[in-house]
Specification:
By secondary structure, the chain is an alpha+beta fold. It folds into 2 domains: 84 residues, PH-domain like (Roll); 57 residues, no CATH class. It is elongated.
Length: 155
């Protein structure tokens, strides 16, 4: 999927993850299991991805309506790329649990599958950064339950 009008930078949906490449070099690689969620804004022609290891940062991929190729302007369709993006991100999510904590904050535990097939848990917020002792205890219990539900060690 081109992400600039000159067709020099591309977002590529690979088996292992989303790869951003440019005419100069490989810019970035984002494994599917590290992409928490994504959205498409048709008016802005932009995908916005939230990364699980940096939820406060967003990866924005703006897709031009056309690119210049061989002296001609060619339209850029997003449907196949959007489908691949959604399928790969969803395939990496094995189990998801959300719950309100005693303080009222929302907790989210995701069991993800990495490129090698290994399962691991991602807690948001992390138990160590919970606002209260009650929240921390609830997060730890929720994390144990989520890990147990997919056969992961709960210790």
């Amino acid at each position: 999927m081109p992400i600039d009008e000159a067709g020099e930078s591309w977002a590529v949906a690979m088996t292992s993850g989303l790869v951003i490449v440019s005419a100069d070099a490989l810019a970035a690689e984002h494994p599917w299991d590290r992409i928490d969620k994504g959205s498409w804004d048709a008016e802005a022609r932009a995908f916005t991805l939230t990364l699980s290891d940096a939820p406060e940062q967003r990866l924005a991929l703006t897709v031009p309506a056309r690119i210049e190729q061989g002296g001609a302007a060619r339209p850029v369709a997003v449907d196949r790329f959007a489908r691949a993006l959604r399928q790969r991100v969803e395939a990496s999510l094995v189990h998801l649990v959300t719950r309100s904590l005693p303080s009222g904050a929302q907790a989210r535990i995701a069991i993800r599958r990495d490129a090698d097939g290994a399962l691991y848990a991602v807690a948001s917020p992390e138990p160590a950064s919970a606002a209260t002792a009650e929240d921390r205890a609830e997060l730890e219990a929720l994390l144990r339950q989520a890990r147990d539900s997919v056969g992961l060690d709960t210790r």
